[in-house]
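Run log // design_07
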């Protein structure tokens, strides 16, 4: 029959082994959590980099399109101006009459 002292010694030894095993498992869990946090962080950084690259691409695309539209608008205005000059040269009296009519309408509208 086991004595109380031997039972206590055995229980203490088992408790130390369990504590050592538990400590090892906690260390493994800590390492796994650190690896998981590193993976999640890497995923987040990759996602942010992808979003930043897409934003740069969209900005460049919008800039290029804006420049193209501005150039097209400038060309249209220049062509319209040239056409108007040509028409004025061809029909100067008509151009003066149209300008006088527009001035008259503007005077009537601003008078009210």
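design_07 sequence
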């Amino acid at each position: 029959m086991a004595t109380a002292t031997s039972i206590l010694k055995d229980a203490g030894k088992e408790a130390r082994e369990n504590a050592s095993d538990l400590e090892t498992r906690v260390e493994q869990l800590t390492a796994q959590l650190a690896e998981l946090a590193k993976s999640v962080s890497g995923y987040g950084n990759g996602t942010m980099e992808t979003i930043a690259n897409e934003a740069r691409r969209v900005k460049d695309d919008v800039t290029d399109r804006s420049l193209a539209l501005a150039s097209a608008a400038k060309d249209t205005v220049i062509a319209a101006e040239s056409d108007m000059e040509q028409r004025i040269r061809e029909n100067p009296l008509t151009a003066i009459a149209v300008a006088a009519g527009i001035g008259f309408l503007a005077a009537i509208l601003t008078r009210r």
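Helices lie at 4-90, 92-111.
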